[in-house]
Write a structure and sequence with these properties.
By secondary structure, the chain is mainly alpha-helical. About 50% of the residues lie in helices and about 10% in strands. The longest helix has 19 residues.
Length: about 120
Amino acid sequence: MNIEERYAFFIRHNRSCVVPNCENLPEPHHLRGKYLGGGVGCKPSEMTCIPLCRPHHDELHTIGILTFEKRYGLDLIVELIRCLSAFIYWLDKHLELHNWEKMLNCVRMLEDLGYEVPR
């Protein structure tokens, strides 16, 4: 598995839906936008996924991201950062991948999104 496939696996099997108090099984939802890549007809990187259950995934597509975030008090970019951070620790702990280059790719992605990542 490459790093993107591992992240998608992590989202499916080690996270819950980002909507508070939701206990449904999650699936990866690709965030799209100015800094995340993708667009009409283009699949963005798996590294832009957050866990959403099917009902919340469908709801987000129906009402739009801003209304969805407001309804549930979420910032989906913050949720992405939380997931990526947890993924880095999961890689190190569970897979014993001490390949810091792969982890640094996650950090670089966050920095490319404009977030300051502590070192």
